[in-house]
Amino acid sequence: MEKVYNKLVRDNIPEIIEKDGKKSVIEIMDENEFLEELNKKLIEETEEYIEDENIEEIADILEVIHGILKAKGTSFEEVEKIRLEKRHKRGGFEGKIKLVKVIE
Asked: Which of 13, 20, 44, 102 has the fewest C-beta atoms lying within 10 Å of its C-beta?
């Protein structure tokens, strides 16, 4: 029996499959395809979190974000700096504020 995935997986998945007595067929992607697949994986992991709100899915989202940043040559520290600047200027989400409308 054969199941086709055609999607980005974590680095150790082929080894885990082999240890389970199965065979896997893999390809190494070029940078453009890799970034496309990381973006798809980000959506997939986000949808999984929204579906079951499991904190483990947040860890998966962060792993994908780290992969995207590395592929783009940006550090997590740089993104954290930007996040903090935006937080300082615009605030965070602690206030639970829902903007209903703006009247001019």
From this structure: 102
CA-to-CA distance for 17 and 38, rounded, in angstroms?
Answer: 21
Q: What pLDDT does 7 receive?
A: 96
Q: Report the candidate in 28, 27, 34 with the shortest Cα–Cα distance to residue 72.
A: 34
By CB neighbour count within 10 A (0-12 exposed, 13-18 middle, 19+ buried), where does 41 fall? buried
Q: Classify burial at 65, counting beta carbons within 10 Å of its beta carbon; exposed 0-12, middle 13-18, buried 19 or more.
A: middle
Would you state the structure tokens that stand for residue 67, as one six-digit string?
């992969």
Range 10-35 burial, b when 16+ CB lie within 10 A, else e: eeeeeeeeeeeeeeeeeeeeeeeeee
Output the average pLDDT for the chain.
97
Q: Is 73 exposed, middle or buried (0-12, 13-18, 19+ CB in 10 A)?
A: exposed
